[in-house]
Every structure is written in structure tokens, then in C-alpha cells.
Amino acid sequence: MTNENQSGAVNIEDSYPLAPLQQGMLFNTLLDPGSGVDIEQLLCELHEALDVAAFQRAWRCVVARHPTLRTSLRWQDLSEPRQEVHAQVELPWEEQDWRELTVSEQTSVLQSF
Prior knowledge:
alpha+beta, Chloramphenicol Acetyltransferase, three-stranded antiparallel β-sheet, 3 helices
């Protein structure tokens, strides 16, 4: 049995209308796409050795366990926007090693990021 929603999209395990707060966030994003007004970032410094493979596996488990982290918003070609819960998602991962940069260079790179 395939996991197919009403639009024929595979990999969608559930679909809901947007909550009012989500509608507002979508409106803000469409009004000014580069503003980042509803984006929250967290910066953590780890001062011990990190097992990167184990860290990636742990995040994959978290994403697999919590549907909210597999949810996207779809609004194009719909009568009303929907939030769609994907059965599986590929967790994007990028590693950058800044240890060879000076503190000033690290600060600059972080600010531009």
C-alpha cells in the first residue's frame, strides 16, 4: 500500500489546515521572503569531542519520532494552505571545520551565515 494523499503525493502521512498563527507566519514569509522574521536560531558551543556519526543518528531518531519536525506547509495550487506531515524526511546536514580560522574570522563567518 502506498502512502498517498488526496493530491496524489507520496510520503504524506497526514494533512491538516493551518492554525491561525501558522497562517500569519506564512503570510509574513510570502510578504517578505528574506526577512527571517519567524526564524529562530540557536547556537551551541561544545567544548568536548563530538561523535558526529552518533550525533547525526540521534537527530535522525528525533525527527523520526516527532511528526512536527517532519511537517511542511503547502499553499500553491490549493484552495487553502495545508500542513503536511511527511512519513520520512532526509535531514540536511553540513559540516564546517572552523578550527583553523582566527576568532575574528570565525565571528565574521558566523555573522554572514
